[in-house]
Design brief:
- It is built from 6 helices and 6 strands, in the order αααβαββαββαβ.
- It is of the alpha/beta class and 150 residues long.
- The two termini are 16 Å apart.
């Protein structure tokens, strides 16, 4: 129910509340925070979507660390990760995303990827791999919620 309200009902108050537990992350990265950050896309819509469940978490991290915001990866696949089995999510993620051409080089940078929910880690794993291939020295991931998965 909580996940449903956060992700599908665009409950902004709930996502603000869930992003309050940020102090541990901030303490962990003090002095070595991210240089650049991005949000994981959940749909194939063109342009900036009006609401992302993890936006407030992302915004608070950006204000604290002052990292620049990279263009979000593009979702290529019409299929949803949630419609895939546990194993297939990892295969699907390999063909599901693309990093915009304007953001091809991340040489030596610490990249932060923020997502709304961690279920299997397939999307975050694949995006992390893509940023490391483009030269990132480190990739960190932060999520708003953890799910028990399939």
């Amino acid at each position: 129910m909580l996940f449903h309200d956060c992700k599908f009902q665009n409950d902004e108050l709930l996502t603000r509340y869930l992003s309050l537990g940020l102090n541990q992350v901030v303490k962990h990265w003090e002095g070595m925070g991210p240089d650049v950050g991005t949000l994981v896309p959940s749909s194939r819509k063109k342009g900036i979507r009006s609401y992302h469940p993890a936006f407030h978490l992302f915004q608070r991290l950006q204000r604290h660390f002052g990292f620049w915001i990279a263009a979000s990866p593009q979702k290529l696949s019409q299929e949803k990760q949630s419609e895939q089995s546990f194993e297939n999510r990892f295969f699907h993620a390999k063909k599901a995303f693309e990093i915009p051409k304007s953001d091809r080089s991340f040489g030596g940078l610490h990249v932060l990827i923020v997502d709304d929910i961690f279920t299997t880690g397939a999307s975050l794993n694949e995006l992390s791999r893509m940023y490391l291939e483009r030269g990132a020295s480190r990739v960190s991931c932060v999520v708003l919620m953890l799910s028990e998965g399939d």
